[in-house]
Amino acid sequence: MTSLVVNAPFVAVAALACVGLYIMVTQRDLIKIVMGVTILESAVNLFLVSLGYRNEGAAPGFTHASGTHMVLPVPQALTLTSIVIGVATTALMLTLVILIYRHTGETDAEKSRRVKG
Amino acid sequence: MDALTTHAPILAIAVPLAAAFLTPLVGRLGAKVRNVFVVAILLFVEFLVFTVVRQVLTAGIQVYTLGATAAGLAIPESHIVPVRIILEVDGLGAFLGIIAATVALSGAVYSLSAMRGESGQDRFYTLLLLLTASMLGIQYTGDLFNLFVFLEILSISGAALAAFRTRFVDAVEGGFKYVIVSTVSALLVLLSIGIFYGQYNLLNIAAVSDAMRYTLLDKIALALLIGALLTKSGAVPSHWWVPDTYTPAPAGTSPIIYASSLTCLGAALRIVFSLYGVKMTVSAVGWLVIVAGLLSMFIGVTMALRQTDIKRLMTYHVISQEGYMLLGFGVGLAVLGDPQAVAAYGREAIAGGLFHVLNNAFFKGLLLLTGEALFFALGTRDLDRMGGMGRTMKWTCAFFIIGALAISGIPPMNGFASKLMIYETSYQLNPMLAIVALIVSIMTLASFTKVFQAAFTGPGLPEYRDVKPVPLSMKVGMGVLAAGTLFFSLFPQLVLDTIVYPATDALLNQTMYIGVIMGGS
Amino acid sequence: MDIRILAFWAPVVCLIAFLVLIAVTYAFRSRGESKHKQGTEQEKVFLSGEDMPDAGMRHVRAHNIYWGFFESLKQYYDPLIRAHTGIVNDYLMWLIGVVAIAGIVILTAGPW
Amino acid sequence: MMSVIVRTIARLATPPILVFGLYVIMHGHVTVGGGFQGGAVFASATALVLVAFGSERVRRYITVSGLTLVSCAGAVLFALLGFGGMCKTFFYNFLVGSPLFGHIPEYGPAHEDIWTGGVIAPMNIGVALNVIASLSAIMLTMAVVSRKTGDGE
Question: What pTM was estimated for this model as a whole?
């Protein structure tokens, strides 16, 4: 039972990653592809945050912390950085989708495609 | 001067990064001021990169610690945090740094007049400087997470540059495909970094390498890293984004995006040689890389032969030449566990691959620039509509001939020297490898003959009667790369001894890379 | 560690050989017919007495080059071109495929 | 432009959001938070105002070029603080011991002392400026772009 509780975040990570990859491969709508990338990104972020959990460690804030053992907040910092980068990539992807829509009037990956071969 | 030498690694990253954000502010003073500013910054970066190279060659691996009281204190005195965020520049990082800085400089100079008339030039130079900073960051960093951050900066700025001319639908599409593929591969890299942190509580490359036990999770992380970084460097069978993205890239950016692909290849080398090294099953990984290399070579060149879009044709050669590099590295990797074979041909194979990286950054960048120059002058990239341009665009034609001879491996040129090293060494592993490589080389020559015939020879076409030669700054940009190509052609042994062999030995000497940070050995 | 494959490769010698060859070629060329006159009928291409076609018609365009090569290798090229769909989903599928192949190879490979 | 209910709520909610964003930014080095988190909270007010009052009205007060300037200024401030540590190494915390954010807290739970953290607090401000400006610029651009696309249909 405890192993299930401990591993629950990792199961969620695997599920989210599979959902993200499935969407990216099967869905032809560009917006949905962007959504798939974002879901994969949340899976990775969840993975990093779950790695940061330490038993009986206190949050590393210098006010009103209980106990003296504080968690080294490296995974949290990584997650935050990755979220910031995610915002930038998502913004860029959505901008490009808008531009593709303006040029072709389509958001379908196959119909909006202009170059191949 | 002494302080400059100490701080050179971080300055090479921080100066273009800060300048990128200063560019819009400087741009308010006028376009001329901004252009001078950008070129001055890139010249300074070039100077810093060569300072780093000199330091690495004379004093060994350079370690620079961020936020410590002295640059060498990688491991904190209190031991609360395992290893600080560091930059660790070895021969490979210094070697690839030269490529990044030089190509960025020539690309920026080329863009000065090629971008004239485009809107939003401030943003263009911001992105260009960001791309430069991220390339140098990937090569100089000694920290896995910084590698990911710089990889993402590289993806974002590269995609935004590729899609910069938003009035063309193919530019937008190419940028979109690039950002999607590179974001997903960067996320896979981040996933494997998470796996390392979960196992070892470390993010430093040397420290993780020291603690590496090659468990099941490490194997999965290796697969993720190899898959993601090979995709980013454009190897078959996930090369699809390369032609779509490079073809519409504006002005002088296609060589810089190419240099960024080579940077990702450098990151893959760092992972495979410095992080895993002999702890993994090197023969399996080596043959994986060899097969990817052969496929890249052959499929790349056969697809290139068919293209009628001049830049698209050249970008398929990007894939094909990537195959040569991978073949060299794969041969070196496959025999990494056997010191005798490494001494006999493994080291030469890796050196050949690295020399080919250097040569390609120059002559392939030059070819991409000539393709863009034709587009600039004629307004089309379609080879079917070109002809007789050798009559009006003499400089472009000369630069094209230099690049085409070099890439096809015609004897006096540098392409021949590096390909010769790859043939000789891969022949010793398996003769079939060298035969495929030779056939691909012939087809490369054939496809560039096709470009030369279609674009430069023939009678002067009436529709292009008043085409003018390209402006001076574009000639200077191409000239820098052409001069580099000719220099490497005439003095291959000098170049090999000065920078290529140190980079090779840095890759092969994993204990040194670890020992500099972790002490001992 | 001191085996140098490029040790016998001397590009300067090669270059000098090329220059000598060019000089010899030029010497032969200068011994040729010197009665050629600029701006007369001699400059025109002789096409069995036909008039020379326009510049656009004379130039062999890019898609004609190596036509036979592609025609004979149709069986190789057709699937290859079809694989280059240009759809971003396929790109991602191949990316996952590459990771999967790498994973299978690395996981199944024994030590050494 | 949304209905009067939305606009009233937006008018009421915006000041607390801004204050909370500023709190998260300014206390980033002592409690949970920081420049990006606070900046994102702050910029969410921009999103609220954009949705409630429409991009046309917002554009009268803030422009994308002005936001670019602010964002660059934030990035330059951050970079300058990094370069400031170059007397030792890049990013060296040169403000420790100085009266400006220079107090050194004891190890373990401590009272709130906002004047700790050295360069981290000013860096948070730089990051926050950058994040606020760039997020707002992105939202403003997207709002304007999607409006134009809507008109074209």
Answer: 0.93
